[in-house]
Amino acid sequence: MELRPPAKELPTAQLLAERALATLQRFLHVEAVSGCVLLVAAATALIWANSPFAGSYHALWHQPLSIQLGTFVFAKPLHFWINDALMTIFFLVVGMEIRREAHEGALSRFDQALLPVIAAAGGVIAPGLIYLSLNIDAVRGQGWAVPTATDIAFAVGVLALLGRSIPVNLRVFLLALAIVDDVIAVLIIAFFYSGGLQVGGLLVASLGILMVLALQRIGIGSALGYIVPGAIVWAGLLTSGAHPTLAGIVLGLMTPVRSMPLREHPLQMLSRVARELQGSDALQNRDTHHLASPRRQLLLAQREMLPPVVRVQTALHPWVSYAIMPLFALANAGVSLTGVDLSAGAQSVMLGVGIALVAGKPVGVIGATWLAVKLGWCRLAPSVSWGGICVVGLLAGIGFTMSIFIAMLAFTDETLLNAAKLGVLLGSVVAAMLGLGGGAVYIRYRRSLMRAHRSPGRDRDVRGSLRQRRDRSAAG
């Protein structure tokens, strides 16, 4: 039986709803929007923590939240569930981004990856040294890694605010640099901010990893099937003394970059099922029994159209950008300015973090990039100039999410922690403003060069110069 198209068009309300939903989905995937939401959450936390309702702000994050299975009870404050559980999903997306870029992106080729790797290394070393020069004391020196991180969402979001005049290769360079920076930050957390590791917990985490590998081996493609093994990895790292959010990185790096092998290509499967349905009365009669198998095949083909690393990352992106990261900022950016003790030690921490982000990051990124190009190890990508590298260096000073996260691992003293957070907030805001200002100057300079290149007078001068050269060559 041949399927016929609908006799009438879809209702106007349905068409408007579909267009609105499609517009919303595109809107949610714009980096600049997620950066603005993150900024609003941080500003809300600051205002709330310094308002007459400051007590409710601090009380909220200390509310206990427990999970009970029989006699087993796991109770932790809300602050723990945000910073140690939800942020694992953030690190999962970061791990998937690293996996994608290493497979087919800016980090897939050695010659492409070398320059952002060197730039990111310079952007870690220079801020760390600046911070340590202002904080020689061992306790305050624990925060050396706070200004070494770059917030991907904020940095890329601010760059997106500059519009499409920014070359694509410059965006790719910033993204690759931020990803490498996150890799370094994860390694720093693993090696410098994890306590004494317990073998039992590592064995539990290893068991979860083996379960993930086994599920991949037998062809389980649904992300839901990996929730339990992922939870085991998380619990194992938590009990081992390592930070549990590292489970997200581990699982993200293990996410397959190729679709699950099928007997036929997903497009072929879709075509075959469509032909079978056209020759059947099951769809016309809404026979759920005979439609069950085609429906399963259609869902399988739809799922395997994209590799898991792309599919899962795309699904989690809105949740991470518009729920998890803003919630983290809301829970951790609320520094009480009236209660900040800016004594000599705390003031050094705040200044060390702020100066290292604003000055150390650009100096490290630009200096390392210039050295790598000068020595002939690398070369700038087409359409990327040194002005663009300067803009990237300024934007790399936006630490925010990752810097605050490391600060909470580095300091147990509330005074030093608040000073570090304040330094992160001030340094990130200044870096963002400098990046926007520098980007605006860079765009105007590029446009002036393009206008000069396209001006008719210049074209006549160039043609006249070429004609004179030909005449002199002919005369000679």
Your description of this structure?
- This protein is an all-alpha fold.
- The chain folds into two domains: 28-194 and 243-259 and 306-470, Na+/H+ antiporter like fold; 263-304, no CATH class.
- It is 73% helix and 3% strand.
- It contains 20 helices and two strands.
- The chain has helices spanning 12-28, 31-49, 54-61, 78-104, 110-134, 138-141, 152-161, 168-192, 199-217, 227-240, 246-254, 266-278, 282-285, 288-303, 308-332, 344-374, 386-395, 400-410, 414-454, 456-475, and strands spanning 64-69, 72-77.
- The protein has a two-stranded antiparallel ribbon.
- Strand 1 and strand 2 form a beta hairpin.
- Helix 2 runs parallel beside helix 15 (308-332) and helix 16 (344-374) runs parallel beside helix 19.
- The longest helix is centred in the last third of the chain and has 41 residues, at 414-454.
- The chain is globular.
- The model has no long low-confidence stretch (mean pLDDT 80).
Annotate the secondary structure layout.
Elements: H1 12-28, H2 31-49, H3 54-61, E1 64-69, E2 72-77, H4 78-104, H5 110-134, H6 138-141, H7 152-161, H8 168-192, H9 199-217, H10 227-240, H11 246-254, H12 266-278, H13 282-285, H14 288-303, H15 308-332, H16 344-374, H17 386-395, H18 400-410, H19 414-454, H20 456-475
Antiparallel strand pairs: 1-2
Helix pairs in contact: 2-7, 2-15, 4-8, 4-11, 4-15, 5-8, 5-16, 7-8, 7-19, 9-10, 10-11, 12-14, 16-17, 16-19, 17-19, 18-19
Q: From the helix content, strand content and strand pairing, which structural class follows?
A: mainly alpha
Strand count, sense and barrel status of the largest sheet are:
2 strands, antiparallel
CATH architecture of the largest domain: Up-down Bundle
The number of distinct structural domains comes to: 2
Separation, N- and C-terminal Cα atoms: 83 Å
Please give the radius of gyration in angstroms.
Answer: 27 Å
What is the ordering of alpha helices and beta strands? HHHEEHHHHHHHHHHHHHHHHH
Number of strands: 2
Helix content: over 70%
Task: Give the strand content.
Answer: under 5%
Integer average pLDDT: 80
* CATH superfamily (homologous) name of the largest domain: Na+/H+ antiporter like domain
Counting DSSP H or I runs of 4 or more residues, the number of helices is 20
- Find the CATH topology of the largest domain: Na+/H+ antiporter like fold
Uncertain stretches of 5 or more adjacent residues: none
